Amino acid sequence: MKPGFFIAIEGIDGTGKSTQTRRLAEHFRNLGREVILSREPTDGPFGKTVRDSAGTGRLSSEEELEYFIKDREQHVRELISPSLEAGKIVILDRYYFSTMAYQGARGLDPVEIRKRNESFAPVPDLLLILDLEVDVALERIGKRGDIANEFEKRDNLMRCREIFLSLSDEPFVRIIPTDGTVDDVSGRIRDAVSGLV
């Protein structure tokens, strides 16, 4: 059995994460690999609470962190770890690095958030951070017909981007510029995974 391989795709809102996770999953399936594609927050009860709060009024930073942790614990236990043990490729649209960024932007310590998550959550084999200037990201959010919610305000996204980019020296991290077309970005991502999986 081939060992599993774990890829997390991160970045601020507007960078095209959902599109690129789907495209990357399709790329590996075309190569004959079995792929599990998922996202965080999940659609489970804890994840749903966080998702709902984005539009109805955010929880306190501490409450929000607890819901993210509980959601991730369930996700790791029920989907991520069993899939990796079965030799599948797991691709996530957001993971604990988003918790570091978004809760870090609210004043919590990203380093402590990371330590707490890595006490139970596997570190990905590859972390792809999709990067984009904040003003361009907000423009994209507006073009898709969305109104920036509490997670997506400009100052918040500036701080989130800084936290994501602070991970760039990690050996398992690749920064992927998301200027250009969707196909351009997909090509950069395929280049980044080439030979690794």
Indicate the radius of gyration in whole angstroms: 16 Å
Whole-number total of structural domains: 1
Under CATH, the homologous superfamily reads: P-loop containing nucleotide triphosphate hydrolases
Largest sheet: 5 strands, parallel
Compute the number of strand runs: 5
What's the helix-strand series? EHEHHEHHEHHEH
In round numbers, the mean pLDDT is: 92
Q: How do the strands line up in the largest sheet?
A: 2-3-1-4-5
Calculate the terminal CA-CA distance, rounded to whole Å: 14 Å
**Rough outline:** globular
> Which blocks of ≥5 consecutive residues have pLDDT under 50?
none
CATH class value? Alpha Beta
Give helix % range.
40-55%
* DSSP strand content: 5-15%
Q: Would you tell me the structural class of the helices and strands?
A: alpha/beta
Which architecture per CATH?
A: 3-Layer(aba) Sandwich
List the total number of helices.
Answer: 8
Under CATH, the topology can be stated as Rossmann fold
How would you characterize this protein structure?
The protein has 197 residues and is α/β, with parallel strands linked by helices. The protein has a single domain (5-193), classed as Rossmann fold. Helices cover 52% and strands 14% of the residues. Strands 2-3-1-4-5 form a 5-stranded parallel beta sheet, sandwiched between helices. The longest helix is centred in the middle third of the chain and has 25 residues, at 61-85. The protein is globular, with a radius of gyration of 16 Å.
